[in-house]
Write a structure and sequence with these properties.
This protein has one domain: Distorted Sandwich (Beta-galactosidase, Chain A, domain 5). It is 7% helix and 42% strand. A nine-stranded antiparallel beta sheet has the order 6-7-8-9-23-19-18-13-16, with no helix packed on it. The protein is built from three helices and 23 strands. By secondary structure, the protein is mainly beta. It catalyses: alpha-D-glucose 6-phosphate = beta-D-glucose 6-phosphate. One of its GO terms (biological process) is carbohydrate metabolic process. Keywords: Isomerase. This is Putative glucose-6-phosphate 1-epimerase.
Length: 309
């Protein structure tokens, strides 16, 4: 990819530049005075966001993350699409294992537009369209966009457009990895009273109800349903709140791998479970999205850092 040509077409002097990053991947660097951010065109993925004056990044990225074509990057805000979780069509004889969480997070996206907004924020639009390779994995025509707005808050909006004549169904998610000072001291507010499917090892998909704030003291892998539009992570170690405001989503996944799973992951350090917590804006479980031919669907989350008083 010609970095000079990309900067000529999409660079914003004093605000946004495009550079070669880890693993030779193309990175978009935003530094607009309101915040600094790093976006990978591989996976269409935000890797870093730090508002002006904030001492710590909003996001966690593993030091052992893979930065390579065909691999997912462990951390930031990966895009899970067109399915969230396990492959929903395991009977596909052409490709017996299409992988967990879909293929969008493992593919290169194109830069479609960049813009300096009147608010001082910066918007980056990336796109992914079907081709012969994607149609081996998923036999549908689509245009997928992600609009990333970097300002005093971070907004990520995923837009699915059905470019064919036949309807299709998707599940999807913004698999946000938040940096926390100590996961065992953080708590997630807003889920009390919500039912969840417990996907942790040995839980056998039990359906339970959240009682009070969620705290991490073991592996957490839960799909919450009928959730409110705003959730909050309180982090006493980093003395901050992370406010997650979702749109077009009624399901949330909360994940922390804990000790054994972290040790089993080649792209995660053994102790990383202590400094990360995923609270994910998703359409999953019973929330399956149908999109007619020519139609579209959206999924969005806005992330804000607030001081913990």
């Amino acid at each position: 990819m010609d970095i000079d040509a990309l900067n000529a077409d999409f660079g914003l002097p004093g605000t946004l530049r495009i550079a070669v990053g880890r693993g030779g991947l193309t990175m978009i660097e935003v530094y607009n005075g309101l915040a600094n951010a790093l976006i990978s065109t591989h996976g269409g993925q935000v890797l870093s966001y730090c508002p002006a004056g904030a001492p710590d990044d909003l996001l966690f990225v593993s030091e052992r993350a893979w930065f390579a074509p065909g691999k997912e990057i462990k951390g930031g805000v990966p895009i899970c699409w067109p399915w969230f979780g396990a492959d929903p069509d395991t009977a596909d004889l052409d490709v017996p294992d299409r992988g967990i969480h879909g293929f969008a997070r493992r593919l290169p996206w194109s830069i479609l537009a960049t813009a300096a907004l009147p608010s001082g924020a910066t918007r980056v639009t990336l796109g992914l369209a079907d081709d012969a390779d994607t149609r081996v994995l998923w036999r549908h025509h689509f245009n997928l966009l992600v609009e990333i707005t970097v300002g005093s808050t971070l907004t990520v909006e995923l837009i699915t457009r059905n470019a064919g004549d036949r309807s299709f169904q998707i599940t999807q998610g913004l698999h946000s990895y938040f940096r926390v000072g100590d996961a065992t001291q953080a708590r997630v507010l807003g889920l009390a009273g919500c039912d969840y499917i417990d996907k942790a090892a040995g839980a056998n998909d039990a359906i339970l109800t959240q009682d009070g704030p969620l705290r991490v003291a073991a592996e957490v892998n839960r799909i919450y349903e009928s959730v409110p539009p705003v959730l909050t992570i309180e982090d006493p170690v980093l003395a901050r709140r992370i406010r997650i405001s979702s749109r077009h989503s009624a399901t949330t996944v909360v994940w922390n791998p804990w000790v054994a799973t972290a040790r089993a992951m080649a792209d995660l350090d053994d102790g990383d479970y202590r400094i990360m917590l995923c609270v994910e804006t998703v359409n999953a479980a019973s929330e399956v999205i149908g999109i007619p031919g020519g139609g579209e669907a959206r999924l969005a989350a806005e992330y804000a850092i607030e001081p913990l008083e």
